[in-house]
């Protein structure tokens, strides 16, 4: 059985998810004295909100714990604190890989839906996870992705069951 291990790089999204609401509240509380115009203050607030939403999506999609067993894969989102999802290995279609901004991503596929992502940026044992996937799942090849396509994929509601 292989379990994903998160790297120290998970600290950045966590700091942002926890810190941005406090920063946003302080900016809104003192909007008149912080900015010369209300438009600039509103722009900063919207920017902070967009960054916060993006970090929540990172927590949901990439900062996950995956347990690879002999017959099933268990996925827990939100740093492993979310609800456990179980998938028998035999019902998975396979896996895909991609390179985005210098990091390798592994996508577990059920049907046509990506049910989980593992990233070399967040998982310290990524190579072990990739090797296990190669041994137990069908390699569906490399996918050309960009940051834009990653964001689009993250925003889509997934139906996996």
From TrEMBL:
Domain of life of the organism encoding this protein: Bacteria
Keyword Transmembrane found: yes
Annotated TM spans: 12-29, 41-59
Protein name stated in the entry: Uncharacterized protein
Source organism phylogeny: Bacteria, Pseudomonadati, Bacteroidota, Flavobacteriia, Flavobacteriales
Species of origin: Flavobacterium album
UniProt entry keywords in alphabetical sequence: Membrane, Transmembrane, Transmembrane helix
